[in-house]
Design brief:
The complex is a heterodimer of chains A (about 110) and B (about 110). Chain A has about 110 residues and is mainly beta. Chain A contains no helices and 11 strands. In chain A, strands 2, 4, 5, 9, 10 and 11 form a 6-stranded mixed sheet that branches. Chain A is globular and about 45 Å long. Chain B starts with a strand and ends with a strand. Classes of the chains: A mainly beta (about 110), B mainly beta (about 110).
Chain lengths: ~110, ~110
């Protein structure tokens, strides 16, 4: 199965700043999703972008998708301490209900 | 959306024993999944729990080690058998919603001594 792969950097930012993280994948996808995980707990779905979409917004989240480069980015604007978490991208192939998760990005927002 | 209740939330087990993790969904779902997340790592899919048939296991995971039950459309269990310290991980269940979106339980943090 394909793998989403984030840049493995850990981000440490001040509250109010923007946080950007990236994800790359290897094969064709139906959609790409971003999930958040707080302190080793369950994952929470944040946003889904379809392969025919280039950009999507949800509240303070902005996701871009470049299928020619097989990459995506997640931007969190005006970060808050509560945004401290690990963020994972996950890809879904056509006709496949399974998700392939990337390595994850640890984001720490300092109050 | 779906609400997933997973238990136990954590356990400490002795080597050689088995632990069964339960996952309850508040609505009927066609597909449920079990993942393992080793410390500091991403999620690895163990298997897809199919209602009324045997689970579909991913490469590297076998039924003897990780037997799965799916007796109905709202419930599934994963057993971690004959545990060793290498099985210490977070185990997560999820339920498939629309457009491949999955809703996750809170996870079971397992430590094997």
């Amino acid at each position: 199965s394909q793998q989403g792969e984030e840049d493995p950097q850990a981000l440490s930012i001040q509250e109010g700043e923007n946080a950007t993280m990236n994800c790359s994948y290897k094969t064709s996808i139906n959609n790409l999703q971003w999930y958040r995980q707080n302190s080793g707990r369950g994952l929470v779905h944040l946003i889904l972008i379809r392969s025919n979409e280039r950009e999507k917004h949800s509240g303070r989240l902005r996701v871009t998708l470049d299928t020619s480069k097989k990459s995506s980015s997640l931007l969190i604007t005006a970060s808050r301490a509560a945004d401290t978490a690990s963020y994972f991208c996950a890809t879904a192939a056509y006709g496949n209900n399974r998700l392939a998760f990337g390595k994850g990005n640890q984001v720490v927002v300092i109050p | 959306s779906a609400v997933i209740s997973q238990k136990p939330s954590r356990d400490i087990c002795q080597r050689g024993t088995s632990l069964t993790i339960q996952c309850q969904v508040d609505s009927q779902v066609t597909m449920m999944f079990w993942y393992r997340q080793q410390p500091g790592q991403s999620l690895t899919l163990i298997a897809t729990a199919n209602q009324g048939s045997e689970a579909t296991y991913e490469s590297g995971f076998v039924i003897d080690k990780f037997p799965i039950s799916r007796p109905n459309l709202t419930f599934s269990t994963l057993t971690v058998s004959n545990m060793s310290p290498e099985d210490s991980s977070i185990y997560l269940c999820s339920a498939l919603a629309r457009e491949n979106i999955q809703y996750f339980g809170a996870g079971t943090r397992l430590s094997v001594l």
